[in-house]
Design the sequence.
């Protein structure tokens, strides 16, 4: 058993199997969400229109992204916001992994199956130590399992520890993440189509900054997939 799977089993001892959205008990075949919450999950289905949807538009005129999508909308105050919160801040990593896996199945039946490698948005080591895991990496691992594409870590690195983004304007956010990221061993991803992964997309400033670094490498393409998109 991998250390990761062992860890998941360990976590389950402390978190009984209840729906991460509504709190009802789960039956055996249900993993994160009950059947009803899963059915009602506000999926974007942007993979059907992969270069002309709301996520793509965030990058127009900023950076050349091939395709972009998110798995579901995340309305403020909704039960699905709680799901993201439990994953990111309460550390229930299984949520990100399983939803990532479901997302991967959706991507596998779309043009996103063209990609070569998956790269999660990195966390700065300080933040990684504080949180104990990189939420984007957990999602990427889930997507990898069903999409059948390899996750490449330690190529895209975060050089600078940035302040929290939440109270900044779009312009401030863009400035804040400029030259924050760097690339190591660029030859590994030359001539490859990379799928960049993040948990939630709001303005897209972090992702565009990552994409710009990757696109500096010869003959690369970048597509984007995030687990959720904030909708007001
Ligand atoms: Zn539920």
Sequence:
């Amino acid at each position: 058993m991998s250390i990761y799977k062992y860890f998941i089993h360990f976590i389950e001892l402390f978190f009984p199997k209840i729906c991460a959205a509504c709190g009802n008990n789960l039956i055996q075949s249900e993993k994160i969400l009950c059947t009803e919450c899963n059915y009602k999950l506000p999926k974007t289905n942007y993979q059907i229109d992969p270069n002309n949807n709301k996520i793509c538009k965030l990058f127009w005129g900023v950076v050349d992204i091939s395709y972009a999508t998110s798995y579901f909308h995340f309305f403020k105050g909704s039960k699905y916001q709680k799901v993201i919160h439990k994953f990111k801040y309460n550390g229930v990593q299984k949520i990100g992994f399983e939803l990532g896996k479901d997302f991967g199945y959706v991507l596998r039946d779309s043009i996103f199956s063209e990609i070569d490698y998956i790269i999660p948005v990195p966390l700065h080591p300080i933040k990684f130590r504080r949180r104990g895991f990189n939420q984007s990496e957990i999602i990427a691992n889930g997507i990898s399992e069903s999409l059948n594409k390899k996750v490449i870590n330690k190529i895209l690195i975060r050089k600078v520890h940035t302040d929290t983004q939440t109270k900044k304007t779009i312009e401030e956010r863009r400035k804040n993440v400029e030259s924050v990221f760097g690339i190591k061993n660029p030859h590994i991803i030359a001539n490859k189509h990379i799928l960049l992964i993040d948990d939630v997309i709001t303005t897209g400033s972090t992702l565009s900054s990552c994409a710009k670094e990757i696109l500096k490498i010869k003959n690369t393409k970048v597509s984007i997939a995030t687990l959720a998109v904030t909708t007001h």
In short: The pocket of zinc ion is lined by residues 19, 21-22, 24, 33-34, 36-37 (CB under 6 Å). The mean pLDDT is 90.
